[in-house]
Design a protein that fits this description.
By secondary structure, this protein is α+β, with helices and mostly antiparallel strands. The chain is built from 3 helices and 5 strands; from the N terminus they run βββββααα. The protein has helices at about 60-75, 80-85, 95-110, and strands at about 1-10, 15-20, 25-30, 40-45, 50-55. The chain has a 5-stranded antiparallel beta sheet with strand order 1-2-3-4-5, with helices on one face. The radius of gyration is 13 Å and the shape is globular.
Length: about 120
């Protein structure tokens, strides 16, 4: 398994991460509240037909997605590098795959979840 794609919509409120699981690819999204909209943050699995399975904040489904993405990032970047990125010390450049993956991880880590 590995992360093969990640991106953010132009509004900056939704970040997507695509995980290659061999025979299939799973796409996950984190939609987080911008100061101007006040929406609650949510993690979801996105399907090819555009439907989503939204997970409750703090649920086992959300936790497993967040930990999977973090584990795959650690496998690729290394635990120390990922920790430095989350601490704001060593961010990948905007547009880089890992920039978006790290944004996804940073959101839940800064909330105190899945650190």
């Amino acid at each position: 398994m590995k992360i093969i794609e990640a991106y953010t919509y132009r509004d900056g409120g939704i970040t997507y991460v695509v995980v290659d699981k061999g025979a299939k690819k799973d796409e996950y999204a984190i939609d987080y509240s911008l100061p101007s909209d006040g929406r609650p943050r949510k993690v979801s699995k996105v399907y090819r037909n555009g439907n989503k399975s939204e997970y409750e904040i703090g649920s086992e489904q959300e936790k497993s997605v967040c930990l999977l993405i973090k584990e795959l990032a650690e496998n690729e970047l290394g635990k120390e590098k990922l920790s430095a990125v989350i601490a704001g010390e060593d961010k990948p450049p905007p547009g880089d795959l890992w920039f978006y993956v790290c944004n996804f991880i940073e959101i839940t880590t800064k909330e105190g979840r899945y650190a």
